[in-house]
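Chapter summary example.
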Amino acid sequence: MVYDGRKQRFKYRCVSVIDELPHLKDKLRYENNISKLNHDLLEVYKKIALKNEECNLREDIFKRFKKAIEMEFEKLRIKVNVGKYGSFMTGLMVGQSDIDITILFPEVTEEEEKEGKYLPYSYSDVNEVLKNCFKMLLKHDLCVGEIVHIKKTKIPILKCIEKEYDIKIDISVGMTEGVSSGEFVCRKLQEYKDLKYLCILVKYFLKRRNLSMCYTGGLSAYAQFLLVLNFIQLHPLSDAANIKDNIGTYLMDFFLFYGEFNYSCALVDVKNIRYKVNTSRELFIDDPVVDGLKNVAAKCSQFDKIQNIFMTSYKIMAKALSMSIHNKDICHLWFKFNTKELYDREQNIKKYIENKQDETKVKKKKTKEVKKERLVRKL
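The structure predicted for these 379 residues follows.
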């Protein structure tokens, strides 16, 4: 990556996995080609999954936004709860994942109403709530650049960028289903050991091909998770083999399975762990957290393209695994990194560590001052 000081911008490119994982060049010995694929995929996972510092800084950002919004609504005597959902809630974050925040309005108890702490409030206009939230963000100076209020959509949102780390924030209202979906994902991640490895790799695979955004016809993160979950539920090795230690086999099988999957005949049902007859003739992934049928992939108009990429990826890797690849990089056939994204993430980690060190110094200084004051008082 090259920094051009005159134009104040980064010039960057996509690079092979081998360029960013130099230890893959080492002359390691593998029992067979699939063992090498397992090892290399786990190294890719380490690179794309967020580090602890990145998760912690997002948590700190969320707490700042939560505190500011709840405090301002409380001044209006309106009871709100700012919650998280999406990948930020489940931990299935890759690269520069956004922070998804939702404003919920819990019921005011009779006791709270009598005390006059909160007023009974039921919002009728989501955009009015977001308009108030817009003003609150400006007041507390939490964002950099423009705060965009997207009104004329099924789910209106505020899109903004956090000031210190340039992390993107999406704020919505009343996303109770999103919270329920996140809770379901968290339960399944606990139930199925190491499921996160396959989820993260598939998510990054689709993200780098611009096929993970439902508003552009891609497959949403929740829909991806349900596909992966259903695949693991039905896989013959899922009870006997560890996902992490056999990640190469699982990912190859995943690409083959969904590359050939006839979605026009069957819908995906993780609740009953089986396939039902699909009468819609389009990709149908049933939402397990709602009663009745609800298609979480209704906006995925590019699944034919996704299937083609899955099948092609399987064939390419199957060919590579049939050859002598002992000291060759093979993961570049599936994954490429964005160097600017990697650079920005490293910078954020450094900044976060420095900020925490500064906070620790300030706390120690205050503690010393307090102790000194106490000694003076005693004297």
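To summarize the output: The radius of gyration is 24 Å.
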